[in-house]
Amino acid sequence: LISLMTYFREAVAATRELLDLIVKCENRIQTRIKIGLNSKMPTRFPPVVFYCPKELGGLGMLSMGHVLIPQSDLRYSKQTDAGGVTHFRAGMSHEEGQLI
């Protein structure tokens, strides 16, 4: 997964199908971990368990599939001129179709 993102980072961000596949695979990995611990209860596995570094008690996973920014975070784009946000996740659209 890391080598896929390294070599094809532009294609991953621009291809919705590939991005959806990465999100699906990431969710499968998390489900396997939950099944291995014999519990799929969501309250026992907040995202911090998966993405927190190992030094702090997490699993140290990298989230490759959640690179798109929800519309509600547009308000922060006025506070900075970094220009790093370029894509929106399906279901998280902007009324004016504006890219940050």
Task: Briefly summarize what is shown.
The chain is mostly helical. It has helices spanning 2-7, 9-14, 16-36, 47-51. It has two domains: 2-65, no CATH class; 68-100, no CATH class.
Your description of this structure?
This protein is mainly α and 100 residues long. The protein has 2 domains: 2-65, no CATH class; 68-100, no CATH class. It is built from 4 helices and no strands. The protein has helices at 2-7, 9-14, 16-36, 47-51. The longest helix has 21 residues, at 16-36. It is globular. The two termini are 27 Å apart. One of its GO terms (biological process) is spliceosomal tri-snRNP complex assembly. Residues 1-100 form the Pre-mRNA-processing-splicing factor 8 U5-snRNA-binding domain. GO terms for molecular function: pre-mRNA intronic binding; U1 snRNA binding; U2 snRNA binding; U5 snRNA binding; U6 snRNA binding. InterPro entries: PRP8 (IPR027652), Prp8_U5-snRNA-bd (IPR019581), Prp8_U5-snRNA-bd_sf (IPR042516). It holds the Pfam family U5_2-snRNA_bdg.
